[in-house]
Write a structure and sequence with these properties.
The structure holds two protein chains of two kinds. Chain A is 65% helix and 0% strand. Chain B contains 23 helices and no strands. Classes of the chains: A mainly alpha, B mainly alpha.
Chain lengths: 159, 512
């Protein structure tokens, strides 16, 4: 089965779960008499979604099996740098988890430096200053100029 | 009226006010380039500064500069790194980014600047002429018509879907509409479908979704396939072809003409605004383009870039009609400007034009001045702005990732939002490989909330769905919406039939 049908199948499951939640929506007592209910549109959407997902799943024309995948050759996919990409995804997740505890400046400079290293940058004398300066400049811009609060330092420094 | 215009001009053209507009444009452009900070947030941030200036005219002139600067800045990030920071520039990235990848970043930015300028100019002229008359027409639009307008906007997805992708585009739209129902809404009493997750209480955030659907898949794709990022800068980041040829100017002139009028009219209706104007503008131009040109849409068509850029700027100008004549802000940005006006002791409304003609015209003139200054200021800057693409890949990608993270963090100040962003971004990347169009999801999400609100209101007022055929305006719009879905299929059939007939006749088809 081609990738796009697998995705249609996943969407079908999502629509069914969403539909279940919509049809069993706990209405408040006074809502029952209203002309338009909070679950009116969701119910319609779930039905439509199931129908369209089924159309994609069972349409006769075999899609993209032998064609290219969104502009890329199947052979090229094998040469994809999946490791690097997963490394970047991990870096983003770490950034999300560490931003609050270790503060904006440390998290950002580590993130930029880390991503560059994952991508194969090895000129540390360029990399480290760039990461530090970016973190400082962006922090200054966001916090001091725009007035949006960003906690700069780690948790053990009171700020 | 002429006295008012002259008074407005003399106010706007003093040295102090010219400095204000230049400063405003620069600030707006540079902050607007950061995804996550659209015109709305930048104006909100600049209001305290504006108020401290004291003089209402000078303050408004600076805000006008910031506004136009921010819109241009938003288009810049859409074109250069496929990261539309504002809903109104999502359509800009459809063709702007492919152009940048072809090495035409400079030209794309120039087209964007010029078509925005043209849209703003036509919008301003229409504003001069028809503001009072249009205000009465806008009042004829009720929730039923708004609902129908949203349906038209959604069926415009037929224009985004390529051959054989209509079902996928529809599915993505429906998923977008479903995502829009998550969280609290204005009409109902409890948050819906949050699965008990506290952070979903206020729903998905637009910025997070936009970043996850556009910027992240692009960045991941560049990593996965290193050839792709190299292909993006064929001339080593050198900016060539900044000039628009006469032929290209000829091609976009009718687009600009049509879209500035259409965009303005959509902008006049409160609540519709620049976003719908840009999507509809793109859809309409794609549908009336012929044969080969239509194929070009989505792959770097100069028309496809000019259409949404013109329409969204014209609509921005149009949204000042209800603000200035009725005191009703038609969009988020005008709502914030309304706040600024009130803080500056100016109350917009039907009386404004009669009581304070100087202010009324100063606002309009300063809006236009912001547009002119932006063009003069930014055209020479374009080669430098486009240099962003010349940053080495090992640094460009971390920066894009960082700005997407920042974009969704600044809006919500919530670290869970970042995890949602990464999760959706990974899903979007996989969907992109399976040839699922991602734009419809975002469009469904943006229009979903508005559509449900208006539909609910219409149903509540008429106690049923009879408004769909009883109100002529609604009926016409709904018919247009349905027609839009079937138009591409019909055109393809016609083109196919014609091609066959021609092949039968002479063996060679020379196109449409």
């Amino acid at each position: 089965m081609a990738l796009d049908r697998w995705i249609a199948l996943i969407f079908l499951v999502i629509c069914l779960i969403y539909g279940y939640a919509a049809f069993h929506y706990p209405l408040l007592p006074f809502e029952r008499g209203m002309a338009f209910l909070p679950n009116t549109q969701p119910m319609a959407l779930s039905v439509l979604g199931v129908v369209v997902a089924l159309v994609i799943l069972f349409s006769r024309k075999a899609p993209t099996d032998d064609e290219d995948l969104g502009g890329i050759d199947i052979d090229e996919v094998r040469q994809f740098k999946i490791g690097q990409t997963l490394g970047l995804v991990a870096a983003m997740v770490l950034y999300a988890l560490l931003l609050r505890p270790i503060g904006f400046l440390a998290a950002t400079s580590l993130f930029i430096a880390g991503c560059s290293i994952v991508l194969g940058e090895r000129k540390f004398h360029v990399l480290i200053p760039i990461a530090l300066v970016t973190a400082l400049v962006i922090w200054y811009l966001v916090q001091e100029t725009l007035g949006i609060y960003m906690r700069p330092w780690p948790w053990f420094i009171d700020n | 009226m002429l006295d008012g215009v002259i008074a407005g001009l003399t106010t706007a053209l003093t040295v102090q006010n010219l400095i204000m507009v230049v400063a405003g444009c620069l600030i707006g452009t540079f902050i607007g380039m950061l995804p996550g900070l659209g015109p709305m947030s930048i104006i909100a941030i600049m209001i305290p500064v504006a108020i401290s200036i004291g003089d209402p005219a000078a303050a408004l002139i600076m805000l006008a500069g910031v506004y136009y600067g921010a819109i241009f800045g938003g288009s810049t990030s859409s074109i250069l790194i496929n990261a539309p920071g504002v809903a109104g520039t999502v359509a800009t990235s459809f063709d702007g980014y492919p152009m940048a990848r072809k090495g035409l970043a400079g030209k794309a930015l120039a087209v964007a600047a010029i078509s925005s300028f043209a849209g703003g100019t036509v919008g301003a002229i229409l504003l001069f002429g028809f503001a009072p008359a249009l205000a009465t027409v806008a009042l004829l639009f009720h929730s039923a018509e708004y609902f129908a307008l949203m349906v038209v906007g959604l069926s415009a997805i037929a224009a985004f879907a390529g051959t054989g992708k209509v079902a996928k585009a529809l599915l993505m739209t429906i998923v977008g509409l479903m995502m829009a129902t998550v969280g609290e809404s204005a009409l109902f009493n409890a948050p819906r479908f949050t699965m008990g997750i506290q952070d979903l209480q206020s729903g998905f955030s637009f910025i997070t979704l936009a970043m996850a659907m556009f910027a992240l898949p692009e960045a991941f794709h560049m990593v996965l396939d290193p050839k792709r990022s190299r292909r993006g800068q064929p001339s080593g980041g050198e900016i060539k072809d900044l000039m628009i040829t006469r032929q290209e100017a000829k091609a976009i002139a009718p687009v600009v003409g049509r879209q500035s009028i259409q965009g303005f009219l959509i902008g006049v209706m409160p609540g519709a605004g620049a976003t719908i104007a840009s999507f509809l503008g793109y859809a309409v131009e794609r549908n009336i383009a012929k044969g080969e040109e239509q194929e070009e849409f989505g792959k770097g068509s100069i028309k496809g870039l000019a259409a949404p850029e013109t329409a969204n700027n014209a609509a921005c100008t149009g949204s000042f009609v209800p603000l200035l004549t009725l005191g009703i802000p038609g969009s988020g940005t005008t709502a914030i400007l309304l706040g600024a006006l009130i803080a500056l002791n100016v109350a917009p409304g039907p009386r404004l034009m009669i009581d304070r003609p100087d202010i009324f015209w100063a606002v309009i003139v300063s809006m236009y001045l912001g547009n002119v200054v932006l063009l003069i200021l930014n055209l020479p800057l374009i080669p430098y702005i486009a240099k962003v693409l010349a940053v080495p890949r090992n640094y460009l990608i971390p920066f894009i990732l960082f700005f997407t993270l920042m974009g969704s963090y600044i809006g919500q100040n919530n670290a869970t939002e970042l995890l949602i962003l990464v999760g959706l971004g990974v899903c979007a990347t996989i969907m992109r490989f399976a040839d699922y169009p991602l734009a419809p999801l975002l469009i469904g999400f943006i229009l979903g909330g508005m559509m449900e609100d208006n539909f609910a209101r219409a149903v509540n007022i008429t106690d049923g769905v009879s408004f769909m055929w009883e109100r002529p305006g609604t009926l016409i719009l709904l018919i247009v919406g349905v027609a839009l879905i079937f138009l591409p299929a019909w055109r393809r059939r016609r083109a196919f039939a014609r091609q066959r007939a021609q092949v039968r006749k002479e063996g060679v088809a020379d196109g449409d």
